[in-house]
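Listing S7. Sequence submitted for prediction.
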Amino acid sequence: MSLNIRAAHERDAEAILGIMLPIIRAGETYALPLDMSEQAALAYWMDPSKHTFVAVEGELVLGTYYLTTNQQGGGAHVCNCGFMVSKTASGRGVARAMCEHALKAARSHGYLAMQFNFVLSTNTRAIRLWESMGFGIVGRLPDAFEHPQEGFVDALVMHQTL
């Protein structure tokens, strides 16, 4: 796979929505409204306070992620990311490549740590991937998310010092 990760542009909006909306509508990994509008989804993902990227193979967008400051003020040295991969590209190493890119980008922006605030305990593939990339589980929020099939599940806080 010849994957390129680059900054997202407005012309990527349709492809990003094609990845985001099925994930949002499934309601299994993100704490976002299932009926979130296209406009609201794009505004959330591509907010000017975020650095948004796409993973492309040729001209096909296979995944997207954003990098942003996790907290303001005294917490501004820690960043946060959100990752989404097209269902058709699942299992092809896209999320790993985006995470590697995100870690480098975070360091280049001067962040000292990266934190994922809300990784669902049912998202075992993501947990295995993040742990393999050096993240540790530093907190557990009991029954913090109502999963459409599993009921109330825990959310994990994962962290890595950069």
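Caption to Listing S7: primary sequence and predicted structure tokens for the chain studied. The longest helix spans residues 94-108. Helices lie at 13-26, 38-45, 94-108, 124-132.
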